[in-house]
Please model this.
Amino acid sequence: MSRNKIVDAAIKLFSELGYHRTSMDDIAKEANVAKGTLYYHFSGKGELFETIVNDGFAMLMEKIRQELAEDAPADRQIESIVRRHVELFLQYSELVHIISNEITNGIEPDILERIVRRKRDYIAFVADVLRRGHEDGELNELPYELAATAMLGLIESAVLHAVRHPETGTDKLHATINAFVLPALLRKK
Model:
């Protein structure tokens, strides 16, 4: 229970103040826990930040895996990835802000290395979906990791725009992202 309160408070503060301007005292106060409780769960701010980012990537991968049906055509899988990312990024916009803005903002080198490795694993996961789509004859042959990186970057940027401009609406967001992504990836028949 306390651990979840700490993580939620840290997500909020890292998103609002950034990694460096957020102290462990701030997090303890926001979570309404004693500082000792904070250090019982996390050895320091770096470990807490790493946990948040790793848990975020793990959640995304698991939700996407659940969403993808092995026998679905590639275009449906891509639409599913886009839809799920948009939904999760909107639901966890503070976490997305942290991952996109704070990930290289002076984080301790060993922690940054592990976070970057986790992000590469996630990109490789999406690249594998694209690779399988090509092997099935449905997607263009592309540098898959670069294509996955570009697709995820587009989704992330579009969602951050939508968070700042709620009038955009989810349907318009899905349609716009798919209008860019699908024609680039789908093999012309």
User: Anything to note?
Assistant: The two ends are 53 Å apart (CA to CA). The chain has nine helices and no strands. Residues 109-135 form the longest helix (27 residues).
